[in-house]
Design brief:
The structure holds two protein chains of two kinds.
Chain A (H helix, E strand, L loop, with lengths): L1 E10 L2 E11 L4 E5 L6 H8 L7 E6 L2 E2 L5 H7 L1 E3 L12 H7 L7 H4 L9 H13 L15 H13 L5 E5 L7 H16 L3 E6 L2 H7 L2 E6 L2 E6 L1 H6 L1 H15 L2
Parallel strand pairs in A: 3-8, 3-9, 6-7, 7-8
Antiparallel strand pairs in A: 1-2, 1-4, 4-5, 9-10
Helix pairs in contact in A: 3-6
Chain B lengths: L1 H24 L8 H18 L4 H23 L6 H18 L5 E2 L9 E4 L5 E2 L3 H4 L4 H23 L2 H11 L1 H6 L4 H27 L9 H14 L5 H16 L7 H15 L7 H18 L6
Helix pairs in contact in B: 1-6, 1-9, 1-10, 1-11, 2-3, 2-4, 2-9, 3-9, 10-11
Chain lengths: 252, 311
């Protein structure tokens, strides 16, 4: 579904992403693991058109993504969430999701209010997204009043409103407590079971290992390995680059 | 009385000018060049009634369209850029327009008139005199104030409808964070241009209405000071909601007039007011939160008024 071939991005002399190949199959729950600064977010920015690669290509369902604008790429069905939460603070939760439906709508719909009778189907879609992301009871609160864990859910809800085929999630669990992370893991699995392909960036090893059916590990912009959780775990390069030092602390 | 009718008409003109700033302000674009579109509207509108025999309404509409065309010219190349480029471009464009208007001469000689005042139409630095449409058609200042405020009403209603629609939410998303807007598939540049061009159209109508009250305009009426005042209407009234520009423009036009008796202090007092608002209410006098509170208070009242079901 998503084919990334030898993609590279350099900032000045620094190779942020160095000739990475990845292939994500339809229905996959694909994890990209790597320490901070290993090029994960840069990779997402390349896939979603926010950055131009220095070299390489990305095909999504047969369409070349490189050279397209971010808004065109979303239209093809590639949605993303952000590591740093971003939303319009003076909108309510419901309005935030509602606004994100816009790209599928005609001019007429854009001038309708949220409670207009002609918009009922769209409003129901918003409700169902809010339900799935645990935001329904908070629908009429301002986005800025949401507790942190739910703000992450709002990021997901907004991305879902674009009706994506594939969802790229940038550290969705960052800043969450263990029970929230656990809940999120369940949610992500449910989204996948609902037919969405998911690519997840994380540095929470436990989460990725438990959740993803295929994992790639990046370090200094290069892919060191790719495989199932067990394959990745036993790879000596991974242990050296990442798990070796960190695991001791994590399990202390 | 006629003096206050003139103030009323000018207030309406300023409200329109404030909305012309607000249109692109909604998408986070600050224009300090609305004087240009106001000026283009004034010259086009006046030329149409004086030289081409148009009626007022058609002239005002065509003036709006001309100003909108000018704003396409500024907006398309600059709104793709981020940050201050757009704002600077609007300032530069407004200066250019002012100089052009200051040096424009077309029209025809007047049959009567004193020496040096025998030209109908813009006459370079001398300006555009004898915009006599109201006088020639027997429209009183009071009637003119009604005409101006009818147009204001249409614009206010339009903004009221837009404000509650999805499009406003999208513009606000662009204002807050363009990256997010693009990530939900919003063609950001296109939305910004459309918002700005709508602003240009309103400024053009406003300018045409202004020309007909003043009956005499010149390039120097459309200096950067006018653009900054227009921006101040929005910033002081409140740029987060459509009620802000209305309140800002009305207060900032009427207060200086009321303060006229204290003469030399009025400008200082006016300045003090601006500083106080900026200090204590950086969101402007009316913020988005204020409007939401009023909205829910009104809804609660409506619910309370409804007859309760019998037990």
């Amino acid at each position: 579904m998503l084919e990334i071939s030898r993609i590279s991005k350099s900032f000045g002399g620094l190779m942020a992403v160095d000739s990475v190949d990845l292939s994500v199959k339809r229905g996959a729950l694909f994890g990209i693991l790597g320490p901070n600064g290993s090029g994960k977010t840069t990779l997402f920015n390349l896939l979603t058109g926010f950055l131009e690669p220095t070299a390489g290509g990305v095909r999504f369902e047969g369409n070349e993504l490189i050279g397209r604008s971010p808004e065109d790429i979303v239209r093809l069905g590639v949605a993303r969430t952000f590591q740093v939460v971003r939303f319009h603070k003076d909108s309510t939760v419901r309005e935030t999701v509602w606004a994100a439906q816009s790209m599928h709508l005609g001019l007429r719909d854009l001038f309708r209010t949220i409670d207009a009778p002609s918009q009922r189907d769209l409003a129901e879609e918003v409700d169902s997204i809010l339900e799935r992301t645990w935001l329904k009871p908070h629908a009429d609160r301002l986005a800025r009043e949401l507790p942190f864990g739910l703000v992450r859910q709002l990021e997901i809800a907004r991305a879902l409103a674009t009706r994506p085929k594939i969802l790229l999630m940038d550290e969705p669990a960052s800043g969450m407590n263990p029970s929230e992370t656990h809940q999120l893991t369940e949610d992500i699995r449910r989204l996948r079971d609902g037919g969405l392909t998911i690519v997840l960036i994380e540095h929470d090893i436990e989460m990725v290992m438990g959740l993803c059916d295929r994992i790639a590990v990046l370090n200094f912009g290069r892919k060191i390995t790719e495989g199932t959780a067990d394959e990745v775990k036993s790879n000596p390069d991974v242990i050296a680059a990442y798990l070796g030092t960190k695991k001791k602390h994590a399990h202390a | 009385m006629s003096y206050w009718f003139t103030i009323a008409a000018l207030t309406g003109v300023n409200v329109l000018l404030a909305y012309s700033v607000y249109a692109s302000f909604m998408s986070g674009q600050v224009s300090i060049g609305q004087a240009a579109f106001f000026g283009v509207g004034a010259y086009v509108g006046a030329s149409l009634t004086v030289l081409a025999g148009f009626d007022l309404m058609s002239a005002v509409l065509v003036a709006g369209i001309a100003a909108a065309a000018a704003s396409v010219f500024v907006g398309v190349p600059t709104l793709r850029l981020k940050g201050y480029h757009f704002t600077i471009a609007t300032v530069a464009f407004a200066e250019a327009v002012r100089v052009i208007l200051h040096n424009t001469k077309y029209g025809r000689p007047r049959a009567s008139g004193n020496v040096g005042d025998q030209w109908l139409g813009p006459d370079g630095a001398t300006g555009f005199r004898h915009i006599g449409y109201l006088n020639d058609n027997g429209i009183s200042t009071g009637q003119y104030a009604v005409i101006v405020w009818s147009i204001v009403l249409v614009v206010v209603v339009a903004f009221f409808l837009v404000e509650r629609s999805r499009i406003a939410r999208i513009l606000r998303t662009i204002e807050e964070d363009e990256v997010v807007a693009r990530s939900i598939g919003v063609p950001v540049a296109r939305y910004k241009v459309i918002a700005f061009v709508c602003g240009g159209f309103i400024a053009g109508m406003s300018g045409a209405l202004y020309a007909h009250i003043l009956t005499f305009i010149s390039g120097n009426d459309f200096v950067i000071h006018l653009s900054t005042i227009a921006l101040a209407f929005v910033v002081i009234g409140g740029g987060q909601t459509m009620w802000g520009p209305l309140l800002g423009a009305v207060l900032l036009t009427v207060i200086p007039e009321i303060l006229r008796p204290i003469r030399e202090f009025r400008i200082e007092l006016f300045g003090l007011l601006i500083i106080l608002v900026m200090l204590f209410r950086p969101t402007g006098m009316i913020s988005a939160i204020t409007v939401r509170r009023w909205g829910s208070a009104l809804a609660a009242k409506a619910r309370a008024k409804r007859p309760t079901q019998a037990f």
